[in-house]
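Blinded run. Sample ID left blank on purpose so nobody reads anything into the name before looking at the predicted structure. Input follows.
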Amino acid sequence: MASRTASKDIITLRGSAAIVSEYFGYAANSILYNRGVYPEENFKKVKKYGLTMLLTEDEGVKTFISNLTAQLAEWLEAGKLQRVVLVIMSKASGEVLERWNFSIETDSEVVEKGVSREKSDKEIMREIQAIMRQIASSITYLPCLEEPCVFDVLAYTNTDVAVPFTWIESDPKLIANPQMVKLHSFDTKIHKVDTLVSYKNDDEWDES
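Blinded prediction complete.
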């Protein structure tokens, strides 16, 4: 009787940084589409993670996300990135309506000693696929955004990191007494990413 073993792929620090930064790019596009921050006609369909994903065709947003993922990859490879937050705000008032929080844990041994880890690419893809499905179904668990919105991205890094001039210091853009929904996580064995969305709670009445 033949035995079978699940094949593992070698994951390097650079490879893991590329996987995670690419995930942020696709996740950001999916959030902007599914939360209606930009019109549906501004997006095109592509295949990724075994799913149909939506990517913006707005040149300004494309450039922003491309520059963002390149910078995140650099910080991830250096082991300096702790968290990324995509914030959705009211265009009129600037009030924060949603915070999509991506927390990153980095294997310090990989950064310090340059060792690699093993994990199947397919397994990583399945984990990311589960998160993308949750983002795509966000309309079922998040309140409707009924006003024009804009977005911003916050990056939390180690204090010793060199910050490009295109990034500025910011307040954390918090939501008072938010509701929270924890999404699935994924792990490359070098970077573990936990995703959590918090949102403004308008239902402040008591049912009792």
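Unblinding after everyone has recorded impressions. The helical segments are 13-34, 59-77, 108-113, 121-136.
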